[in-house]
Amino acid sequence: MNKKPDQVPLEGVNRKRILRSTTAAATRYGLTSTQHLGMVASTINAVGGNMMDIVASPATIKRHRKAEQKAIATKVQRDFMSKFKSQKKVLHWDGKVTEFLDTQGMVYQDCNAVVLSVPLSDTKPQFIGAPVVDQGTGEKLAESAIHCVNQWEAADDIVAMVFDTTSSNTGIHQGAAVFIEEMLDRALLWPACRHHVAELHIKWPYDKLMGATTGPDDPLFKKFHDWFVAKAQEAKANGAAFPDTGLFATWQWDDRSPTGPYRNSVTWWARATLTWIRDMLHRNTFPRGDYLEMSEVMNIILGGEVFENPPHSAPQKGAFMFCTC
Description:
The protein is 48% helix and 12% strand. It has helices at residues 18-21, 23-28, 33-46, 58-83, 138-151, 167-170, 176-184, 194-210, 219-238, 265-283, 289-301, 315-324, and strands at 89-102, 105-117, 126-129, 132-133, 158-162. The longest helix has 26 residues, at 58-83. It is globular and about 75 Å long.
């Protein structure tokens, strides 16, 4: 049997394309330009080559990445526009505050993630852009969303909008949904996100009991989150188990009828909810991380297993914890 050579000659390798050929894989696995260069250099040296024969630098890799990403994005856009031309579409958007690294360090900017979906289609919703907006106002969100829609030539096909229930989206005068209808010059369906609509039923009693908040975060839950993380880190350093279920207010079950008929409808619903949550957690059926976190919190409150990750400080989940306790 022929022995494989210890070194692979590079005469047959296109030295000008080796960086571009590995760009897609490096981007997919989240490698930085410097890490990508190090990976290529290690591979070349391992097979007996010489990096001096290849023109390479982080700046060169960045250029290759931009070119590769542009080519892929162009193909995705062309295929989507061709496959679903003139078909009815639903516009989704969600404003997010995103961290960027520049010469001054980490900066925060408002971005608007925009997605198109095609009803009655087995195709997943298509991400079409996340432009930076000067301000997270309804007008700016609407302008950026319509700009993306126009780039994908889908303005005439939009029949509905999906969005969360913040005032910047739903305001009757300055909401993004109103501005989008004005820009498209027609009325659209407003199937607001069911996830956020359901949260309003939690928000209303909480605001009545605790008072409304003016910012995106509730100071009470932020303080609890910080305390929880600190306690978890302390317990981990000491090798102790955390969290201790005794720290939380949990459901008090009626021991007089643990398996028999339930004493009242509230107990019945609590038992049914715990059974459902355990089944969902066991099957790992949650497509979104916040649904999973919410279910873990409900599981603890109803006396189920303890989760390891700290609870999220989002006001909706914090309000849920308060109302259920």
